[in-house]
Amino acid sequence: MTRNQQANQFSNRLFTRFYVVLVLLLLFLGSGLQYVLNRMDEAQLIRDIKLVHQPLFASISQVLSVHEPAQWDQLLNDIQQRTETGLWLMSLADFTADRDTLEQLSNGDMLALFDVDDQLTLYQRLDGSEQVLGITPQTRLSQEQRLWVLPVFYSLLALGLYVLIRPFARQLLQLKQAAADLGQGDFTARVEVPASTTLAPIADAFNTMIREIEQLMLTQRDLVNAVSHELRTPLARLKFAFEALETQTGTEPLTDTVAAMRTDVRELETLIDEMLRYAEVNQTDAFEKQPLNIRDWLTELTSQHATDQLEVRLGLDASISAGQVILCDEIQLSRALSNVLRNALSFAREQCQLSALIQDGQLLVDVADDGLGLDALHAQRLFEPFYTVKNQHRKAGYGLGLSIARKIAHKHHGELSVVKGTMSGACFRFTLPLV
Fold first, then answer.
1. Is it true that 211-283 and 290-433 share their CATH fold?
2. What's the predicted TM-score (pTM) here?
3. Which fold has domain 290-433?
4. What is 138-162 written as a DSSP string?
């Protein structure tokens, strides 16, 4: 038996057990409720029967009171034939076994008692005598004519429960199977249920979780592959450099080799620093935010990244006043904007432009360059870790800067995206809430 067959068999047993327990519980509760209702109906019916027969007791008692006791049996037979009602006389002494019954009859109360055949009989003492008149009512308390109602009702209830619960159980089984498949590494597993069902929100959340886990696993795989590649290149150069040291003679070739080795070491250090920053941003839940003057901050960043070969222009909209601030982590947000600026400078031919404005309570910062621009394929994957765009104008880079910048923007409840700019190259936009 396969694993799926075992799971299905177990789930079917679990559903059957749950269904049987639920039906039995409903039967027990329903029977108890039916018993209480029947007892209430029975008590009310007895009161009605006693009320209906009270005049008959009074009439018979009056008829018998004007005749001698020796004639009572004959009179009762005549009345019984005319009314088709069971009538007979008993001695009060016949009820001495039950003191409560004897006391009530002695007080003239009408009693309703059942015989061994569950037949109701009414008893009342005749005034001024030791005789008790018994009357068998024509109305019976038997509910045999309604006995079929309960089985039909509970059968329909059980059928309705089955119709309602079975799809729910099947969907739970599907959710369980998808979770088991996910545990085996199958990220294609999905839970498909109708949108109108109760489990639809849970299924949607589960499917979203699987997609996110799948994306995380793909990112991790790409990250490991990229790190391995990036580390292998400078290490290979260092290996060749060490081999060259063993064969080189003279001071000048040796100096050049050592300088190249130092460059490779710095490259490794830079890569490690970028990876540590990437890990730091991912592990940080929230940044400590402080007010930061927008104009002063952007002016300082622009001056820091300007070079003799490339111009970095700053354009601030009138919506940003001299005292306008943004609530943020200055170090992290400066790192994010610096990463984007350095990326723009690596593609620019002559200049980059940084522009900012405030719109709908958000700070919009655009970083554009006059390079060759981006095609649609690069724009979709640009923020993936270690994804790089290489061309003849591209300077060195590891593909982590934009990914780090976007993570920092998200931690500030903002966004970093690619938009259409006014220059020939790419344009990146930070969208950041002011508070």
1. no
2. 0.49
3. Heat Shock Protein 90 (3.30.565)
4. SS----GGGTTHHHHHHHHHHHHHH
